[in-house]
Amino acid sequence: MAPHSDIAAAAQALREGRLVAFPTETVYGLGADATDDAAVARVYAAKGRPSFNPLIAHVPDRESAFALGRFTPEAKALAEAFWPGPLSLVVPRAPSCPVSLLASAGLDSIAIRVPSHPMALELLSAAGRPIVAPSANPSGKISPTTADHVRRHLKDKVAIVLDGGRCKVGLESSVVSVLGDGPKLLRQGGVPRAEIERVLGHPIAVESHSARPHAPGQLLSHYAPHAEIRLNADAPREGEAYLGFGPLHAHGAWTLSAKGDLVEAAANLFRLLHEIDATGVARIAVAPVPHHGLGEAINDRLLRAAAPRESA
Ligand code: AMP
Ligand code: MG
Fold this sequence. Notes:
Helix content is 32%, strand content 17%. It is α/β, with parallel strands linked by helices. The strands form 2 sheets. It has a 10-stranded mixed beta sheet, with helices on both faces. A 4-stranded parallel beta sheet has the order 11-14-12-13, covered by helices on one side. The chain binds adenosine monophosphate (AMP) and magnesium ion (MG).
């Protein structure tokens, strides 16, 4: 167990927007302040993820979890039965939910978990805010179950690696959504399906990622602004709001990143689309975003937002 002072330093790093790898009972997580758009963007950048799939917000207790989302009686029953533990619950975001829209990948739902590893719980309490923590490995590599695995691949990307020994579960959390159309098992993981069904008192629908390998990305089709989106626009036309990038930022009130920084642009993307949409404008023109680094994920999301709606 890491000394108390290490955990305090890690909590401080998280509050400053830096990344901290820490043990949970499932796998090691790459932690960042879930309420800080830029910190969340740095998680995607560090993992080299090709797209912004939604992340799980980690909190130290049920009360903190209940403040972030709307829990039906079934969701509450699962929380009572399995938290702290290897189950993540996807519920509608509470109106006051402070978690970055980037962490929810622009969705109006949020995935939440209370892990059971004592060091994780201590860190989350000390941080005093929800922490996103996808597995602490580069995209496409195997999830780390020791601090050494993390150091091997991500050492340069994180402020601190907390060492809590080998992960007991070693498998990612089970992900269950409870969104109004009944519970669905989105990912098999640390809590066996039979145990979930025992608590629910009925079988659970399975919508596994193996059946729909691009589920996290497809989820984005649920999110579309009311406004029409025009991409690769060098300037706004009559009646359009303009979302700029880099040198083109001067054309309008909104800019993904005036200095052309892709990490900053990712951090701002979903928040700005919501903000512009809220003005009621009919069309949003978006400046070209370079197609490298996080730019690929940004363009992927923009293309989805711009896609025709009829089929959705
Ligand atoms: P990881 O990043 O490995 O911890 O995985 C997070 C998992 O939670 C992925 O399978 C996501 O698709 C899933 N997830 C997170 N948030 C949501 C959400 N709002 N709706 C559906 N699935 C989610
Ligand atoms: Mg992973």
